[in-house]
Amino acid sequence: MPNAVQQAPAAHPPRMRAKESASAPSEPMTGAQSLIRSLEEVGADTVFGIPGGAILPAYDPMMDSARLRHVLVRHEQGAGHAATGYAQATGKVGVCIATSGPGATNLVTPIADAHMDSVPLVAITGQVPSRSIGTDAFQEADIVGITMPITKHNFLVTQAEDIPRTIAEAFHLASTGRPGPVLVDITKDALQAQTVFSWPQAVQLPGYRPRTRPHPRQIREAARLITSSERPVLYVGGGVLKAHATAELRDLAELTGVPVVTTLMALGAFPGSHPQHLGMPGMHGDVPAVAALQKADLIVALGARFDDRVTGKLDSFAPYAKVVHADIDPAEIGKNRAADVPIVGDAREVISALAAAVREEYKEGDAGDHTAWWQDLGRWRDTYPRGYELPADGSLSPQQVIERIGQLAPEGTLFASGVGQHQMWAAQFLPHEEPGTWFNSGGAGTMGYAVPAAMGAKAGRPDRTVWAIDGDGCFQMTNQELVTCALNNIPVKVAVINNGALGMVRQWQNLFYGARFSNTVLHDGATNAATGSTRGVGSAANRGTRVPDFVLLAEAMGCVGLRCESPDELDAVIDKANSVTDRPVVVDFIVHEDAMVWPMIPAGTSNDDIMAARDVRPDFGDAADD
Question: Taking 90 as the threshold, does the pLDDT of residue 243 lie above it?
Answer without folding.
Answer: yes
